[in-house]
Amino acid sequence: MKTLILLLLSISPLLLLIPRSPPSQNKGFSLQAISADLPFNPAWEGRPMSSGEESEVAQALLQPYRHLGDGGQCFSFVSKDDRYVIKFIKQKAFDLPVWMDRFPLPFLIHWLCEKKKGKRAAKRDRTFQAFKLSFDLLPLETGLMYVHLNKTEHLQKTLSFEDAEGNTHRLALDAVAFIIQKKVDIASETIDRLMQKGDVENAKLAIDRILALNLRLHQKGFHNRDPNFRSNCGFLKDDAILIDVGRIAPGKHESLKAIRKFRDYLSAKHPELLDHFDQSVAKIANCK
Fold this sequence. Notes:
alpha+beta; Transferase(Phosphotransferase), domain 1; 2 domains; seven-stranded mixed sheet; 10 helices; 41% helix
């Protein structure tokens, strides 16, 4: 190991000779960022849909989309009627860093490349499995309408959408991985709005619905590895919905971190709701 470290240190000046890629004009969405040449994986196939589900998905894909936001795993776009969100998976997050392909002495880092390839492949599979499990088993809790994780030929659909810079793209959906989700109202924004109106009772109901969502996930044998309540939970009419489903995993892990973050938000923004929150958490603890 010492010899290897000395070798790497001795050639470190060569790293300066590695050609740099020109800076991207758009560091956000690009067609290259959501493209990947992957073999068909049956483990990523979602459950069969009902005729009603197929009809709603077809309706969702009849309209253009505009940029909604970028998360750690996906680029999100909202439909013209503001009812649906299509999320394209950031495939580049699973690729090796560019510098590894351009390292002047590749034999020295071959072992590192292979190790990283395995980790990135496992990360992709974990993410895709989370989408599939959410669609198959938690459609009501996640608002997921459709998952498309393998390349196909049956969709025969080209989607028009506008990115954050106002550029219009037309994309053949058979060729890329994406999911379709029902559009929801962000939970924290909903509670803020209710409290601004002085509607404390409905704000308390919103808290109860979010906590009930966490309880349902727990009872169904799942937990969410992303505890960020403020960006990861919303409301579809009267139902609390998990927005970021790429970190759903099997296992009844306690969601104490998520509850703490929820409480921290209330403590900072709406401390008058803390007593109700604590009482609701205590009730839920008795249900588990």
